[in-house]
Amino acid sequence: MSTSSRRGAGRFAPSPTSDLHLGNLRTALLAWLFARADGLDFIVRLEDLDRARVAAAPGVADRQLRDLEAIGLDWDGPVVRQSERLDLYRDATAGLDGYECFCTRREIAEASSAPHAGRRPYPGTCANLSEEERRVRRRTRPPAFRVWAGGAVQQAWDRFAGTVSAEVDDFVLWRNDGAPAYNLAVVVDDMVQGVTQVTRGADLLDSAPRQAWLTERLGGRAPQYAHVGLVVNARGERLAKRDGAVTLTELEASGMDARRVFWLLCDSCGLPRAESPRALLGMLAGDAGRLTDPALAQQWVAPVPAAP
Ligand code: GLU
């Protein structure tokens, strides 16, 4: 697969299914700062493959872009929407070995002995079905398509966590509703867009080895990752809409303008309050170590009142 030959890029890749909250804005600010401080381009990509959830959230994509601009972030090149790039994902998988999978989520959960809930490694249940077994199963359930990873062990490098290593499971490339899966689309886009630095929330750290592996399988070089701390409410739960004024629109309605929201994000990162992200970058020149502070990978408790 051909990749962009630019100097490299960082990116922020929101899903336009709900307005950006303080956690998303903080991740976006850090992604922008890391990229700009390293002299990289900065790209914004709308990950809108979940058509039903996107359709149920009209206007969100435009508001996300407006909110990024309002706190002073800019980006290079056009904003890319994954829904317009299905051919790219199809072409990328043409050369990959894989197999049809008929498992339900529940079957995978029951068959897996993984200790943590959430993203469980796939136990390979459908790897060895015969053609006849597949034919029979296709009658009752459309298959997903999984890549054959062959138990590969893959390393990825994270700015805060250092080297992370994991066995790559046979993860889904195509969902059984015909849509490309997150791990496929994100890898193909990062490659095609010349992304060399991936900044996102710490909840995706365990996806890094499989994405690095797929990047290399497709002939690319894995990006450097920067998984930053999630933002939580006073009870230590992941910040959510019900927590009160958490989006820029809501914060503005409660009397806090975009610059104050930017300052709040600066405070949360232990960075000085500057006039703008651009001015902050200037203040940090020669002191880039502040952007590798391990505290940036820790949770930040947002100062919004907890829901009753
Ligand atoms: N679109 C994903 C999200 O909004 C982020 C994926 C990524 O950055 O790799 O959570």
From TrEMBL:
ATP binds at K241. Its cofactor is Zn(2+). A motif ('KMSKS' region) lies at residues 238-242. The keyword Zinc applies. Residues 11-260 form the Glutamyl/glutaminyl-tRNA synthetase class Ib catalytic domain. Zn(2+) binds at C101, C103, Y122, C126. L-glutamate binds at R11, F12, A13, P14, S15, E47, Y182, R200. Transmembrane segments: none annotated. Its EC number is 6.1.1.-. It comes from the Bacteria. GO terms for biological process: glutamyl-tRNA aminoacylation; tRNA modification. Belongs to the class-I aminoacyl-tRNA synthetase family. GluQ subfamily. PANTHER family: GLUTAMATE--TRNA LIGASE, GLUTAMYL-Q TRNA(ASP) SYNTHETASE. This is Glutamyl-Q tRNA(Asp) synthetase. The gene is gluQ.
